[in-house]
Design brief:
The structure holds 2 protein chains of 2 kinds. By secondary structure, chain A is mainly α. Chain A has 23 helices and 4 strands. Chain B is α/β, with parallel strands linked by helices. Chain B is built from 8 helices and 19 strands. Chain B has helices spanning 22-28, 66-70, 174-181, 218-229, 251-260, 286-293, 309-321, 337-341; strands spanning 2-8, 12-17, 46-51, 54-55, 73-75, 80-81, 85-88, 103-114, 119-126, 137-141, 149-152, 162-168, 188-195, 207-213, 236-242, 264-270, 282-283, 301-306, 329-331. Chain B is globular and about 65 Å long. Classes of the chains: A mainly alpha, B alpha/beta. Chain A binds chain B through residues 5-10, 48, 52, 237, 240, 244, 248, 251, 300-301, 303-305, 307-313, and chain B through 8-11, 90-93, 316-317, 320-321, 323, 325, 327, 345-351.
Chain lengths: 513, 353
Amino acid sequence: MSANQRLNLREKYQKFTRDLAWEPSYQKKSDIFPQTDFEGIHIHDWDKWEDPFRLTVDAYWKYQAEKEKKLYSIIDAFAQNNGQLNVTDARYINALKLFLTGVSPLEYAAHRGFAMAGRQFGGVGPQVSCQMQSIDELRHVQTQIHTISHYNKYFNGFHDWQHMHDRVWYLSVPKSFFDDAMSAGPFEFVTAISFSFEYVLTNLLFMPFMSGAAFNGDMATVTFGFSAQSDESRHMTLGLEVIKFMLEQDERNVPIVQKWIDKWFWRGYRLLALVSMMMDYMLPKRVMSWKEAWEMYFEQNGGALFEDLARYGIRMPKYWEVTVKEKERLSHEVWSTFYNYDHAAAFHSWVPDEAEMQWLTTKYPHTFDQYYRPRFEHWQSQTDKGERWYNNTLPMLCQTCQIPMVFTEPDDPTTTCYRSSDYKGEKYHFCSDGCKDIFDDEPEKYVQAWLPVHQIYQGNCGGASVPEVLEWYHLRDGEDNKDYLYSQDRANWLKWKGLTEEAERTLKAVVNG
Amino acid sequence: MTYELSIEPVGERLEVDEEQTLLDAALRNGLYLPHACCHGLCGTCKVQVVEGEVDHGDASPFALMDFEREEGLALACCARPLSDVVIEADIEEEPDALIQPVQDFDGTVVELVDLSPTAKGVFIELDRDLEFQAGKYINLHVPEVALPRAFSLANAPGEKRVIELNIRLVPGGEATSYIHQSLKVGDRLKLSGPYGRFFVRKSAPENLIFFAGGTGLSSPKSMILDLLESGDPRRITLVYGARNRAELYYHDLFTDLAAKHDNFTYIPALSEPAPDDDWDGDVGFVHDVARKRFDGMFAGHKAYLCGPPPMIDACLTTLMRGRLFERDIYMEKFITAADASQGNRRSPLFKSL
């Protein structure tokens, strides 16, 4: 072996990671890493952490720079060629509005969260993994802001996404999800985000979004999605590694990890309710149904993972069987809710047309015609009379997931599921047993939840009327909100594309297949 | 026609014939690449082709998917060079692995022994010495059978000239049927070896537990004989399972070894002892018997597993529940064509299990 032979991957990784660490001599480790113990996780040997990617920081910059170069050349080309005009239908943009206002701020939150977790872990392996992920997430949010910036020139609802993220009622669902994770300890944070969300559930977020974009002609989104996804396999591996590491380090960690998996599976699943309606209602050209996606990505792939985890004494996440019972109704219940409250949302809703309802009938043979089609037909008849219906009574929210209490009993899709807990003389309400259990385990955390409806009623949101609240949200009444049928977005779209209403109907039918 | 094969990250350069697979070329030069089935079914030998072109040969579309081919991945066991090739492989340095180039051998069958109603001991005298590390296997070319079959070497590595294979009759199996029904003393056979990555981590200080089921005994037998012959002082336990007494071959050999060596414990287990077996040993499956004997706690050991897939699977769960994990568990994986086509549900949680 010659002296200047280049280092192999393993040696290089060692030099750039483990070899950068040192044993502190004039400060105690527990003072340097004060958050490692309080969650109850016992770590005996940080060197047992294995990073299977062995990505060193010099290679990291090289890969990422290449990705950025490719991505921005495509985004530029998209903008120059008015790529937004090539999407299937302007209704598609509403899926983007939901994703970009709901998820992009979470990418930024992830950037912060992984920086904090990396700072708190006592071992150099996870420090480096978390640091790289933190930088990845910053890259992701930046690319998504570029996309927001482009679409904001042509469509409503994007203009003040950061402000909205802190205020708008349904955006409190993703926001509170991430705040919950970030205000936990470093081990729970990584279990929540890297394992439960990035590993177990991420395919259900990215697949419909990415394939949805591809199916609907949105190449800018497809490209940033691919670019982000190339980082995801590393993030998913971090999720798996942290779980294995905790489970192997000490037997006492097993029940704690199980509790976190239970909690964050359910929190993530409830968040994905927004994705379910995106898949079934918001994509003019549909990829697959929520039910099919849940079966493929959770029941099959997740099942295989939990079969392997069983060797550590970990079982399937609590209430997973409820998710299976809910798969035939989730998207319909959520879309109906947004149809009710669209006058207070930053995107448009609509009643699916007949061809789209036919698709839903085919995909949901046991539920759609029985429970949901009559509802949509009724709403359509109201609209036909010029009386598009909006619900002006504010809904009760779940104290944990912050979604309106619209979900139904696991064994009865016609009865709303109500659960409640009493804590220090107050009653708290929940959409499900899963959300109730999470509250009951840490009530002091969730009594502090900033619930949009409570805040409106307490006079903290600009006033008691819808226009006042919209103003406080920075939403423009009649532009950003309400039914797609009457929207500026639609009027512009017909004008730009030179479409008559008749041609629009034909095109929708063609797109729908 | 030959090409140059460069293997990163170790920077090894070697010649490869256009008819030869990349894996074969690497192994024949004493360079270990991860591999298992050698027929393009399991995907263990996946490598990145950094430069040059390869023919993917019989790589299964399940083991090497289309998008992976587009990304320049290849299965080393099937890929043949179409030009000079540079590959990058995940090569882990193993201080205990002996580098022994794979070679071709000719030999003569010198003895055939009925070890049990289903297992035959085949002793082959080679024309020259075979240096091998205990736990390795050879590929045996069985007359009238197209592809060679893998069999673990059951003799201790001190015996280099007469090798021993323990071969179970697989119902309907082409090669094993031939061996059981047609092979005779005096027959000439061709084989190549040694192959594999199953060997004792002699530099590791931990005590050892071997789990063997059926003809999976071959490698543990070779390993244990080697350890005891070299006077290794660590505690060595063999948990060896068979259905009934007639299937529990080499029982007397291990009973004698246990009597002679204080540091060796032999735990035979029968899952379904026959009424006339007169068995007073442990009854049950290997993993259950081991759990009872070790009081459910395996931490601090190195475990070596060899046996049928259901036995391996049950042992893994038992070991992990007993706080022994992937980095301390070693096993020999034989993947048959039938196993690979079953599309087994595996998550990426474990790398080597």
